[in-house]
Design a protein that fits this description.
Elements lengths: L5 H22 L12 H29 L18 H32 L9 H28 L19
């Protein structure tokens, strides 16, 4: 897997912002009412991914410390507290992080398009004030999801090993 390029997320969000702005501009009167709580599930997912990233990062760091002999030992009685992280869990979390980053960018673009139409119309349309607030909440929750997903993806990366000589390529697994 390759890491997500931030540029791809920005292009995706910007393109969908323009497309949704055009759709909202054409169909604003026929759209159902927007409520402030509609983007909140994105914030809940962002919080869950941020907590997962923090937990995974600390568990992997503790596991690396234990392998290097700097972590808790059996004599301390704390060695039993270290639970190993399954590699498949890390791989699944990396896939979740990438999917969430793209989904967050898509939804941020859509809410951005709503915001691009509603914010300038606050003075002339009655519903535009509430829709502007919902658009701001939507963009904020979506951006939080993208940030949390990128943090989780970063926590899933395997650091390079320092076992070989400087500049040497790591050997292939047997």
């Amino acid at each position: 897997m390759t890491p997500i390029r931030r540029r791809d997320l920005l292009v995706l969000a910007a393109g969908l912002a323009v497309a949704s702005w055009l759709m909202v501009r054409a169909l604003y009167g026929e759209l159902p009412a927007l409520r402030w709580w509609q983007p909140v599930p994105l914030a809940v997912l962002a919080l869950a991914e941020a907590l997962g990233a923090r937990t995974l990062r600390s568990r992997l760091a503790a596991q690396r410390e234990a392998r290097a002999g700097r972590g808790p030992t059996a004599a301390d009685g704390r060695a039993a507290l270290l639970r190993p992280v399954e590699p498949m869990v890390v791989a699944r979390l990396a896939v979740l992080a990438q999917a969430s980053a793209y989904a967050g960018a898509v939804v941020a673009g859509i809410w951005g398009g709503v915001l691009l139409h509603a914010a300038p119309a606050v003075g002339r349309l009655a519903a535009a004030g509430g829709d502007t607030v919902v658009g701001v909440v939507g963009v904020a929750c979506s951006a939080a999801l993208v940030v949390a997903a990128l943090w989780l993806e970063g926590a899933c990366r395997v650091p390079p090993t320092d076992s070989g000589p400087a500049g040497a390529e790591p050997s292939a697994p047997r």
